Amino acid sequence: AQSVTQLGSHVSVSEGALVLLRCNYSSSVPPYLFWYVQYPNQGLQLLLKYTSAATLVKGINGFEAEFKKSETSFHLTKPSAHMSDAAEYFCAVSGFNNNDMRFGAGTRLTVKP
Amino acid sequence: KAGVTQTPRYLIKTRGQQVTLSCSPISGHRSVSWYQQTPGQGLQFLFEYFSETQRNKGNFPGRFSGRQFSNSRSEMNVSTLELGDSALYLCAGQSGTDNTGELFFGEGSRLTVL
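Structure tokens for the assembled complex are given below, as produced in the milestone run.
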């Protein structure tokens, strides 16, 4: 079975500071990994996805994530936080043998002025 | 192109009633998945339909059911509603034949059970 664990349900950073949201995965097959963002009263929107083409994945809005197989991690980063980045972020995993995508518990990002 | 449409956006029901939610995916997306989102449990997978067939199912009781039509529109039904069914129900469409691609989410149907 595949799963993801997000470390930290809440993360608070100052505007302009580095954003680091942590995600570790568990998978018995090569995983497909995703980061989604959810703004209030909206559905989820894809930020980026890892599909084994490159370990460093660049997404929208300046976010990127690095796949580290040795650490089974797929942490999300952004060099400089913006107020508009305040939202909930979800890490997700799927794979060839699974016909569903499994999500982490989510991390709520707060950006302080 | 049009996004994923979920109706209704908000609804209030009482315990014991039943509810039907609708989801229209992006044109050409044959896979539709449903998720329940609550503050305590996060995003929980309900089921996934592909070409009118339920392809995968999460760990929910039989009160939760769904179906998909030939135009890929999907409905989910919850019978004998309980207070704990209050949640945001999200559907998501996907292109392709497996689940390795991006999910395209609707804005959700927020169900309140009184």
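The longest strand of chain A covers residues 19-26. The interface with chain B takes residues 32, 34, 36, 41-46, 49, 51, 90, 94-96, 98-106 of chain A (CB under 8 Å). Further analysis is deferred to the final report.
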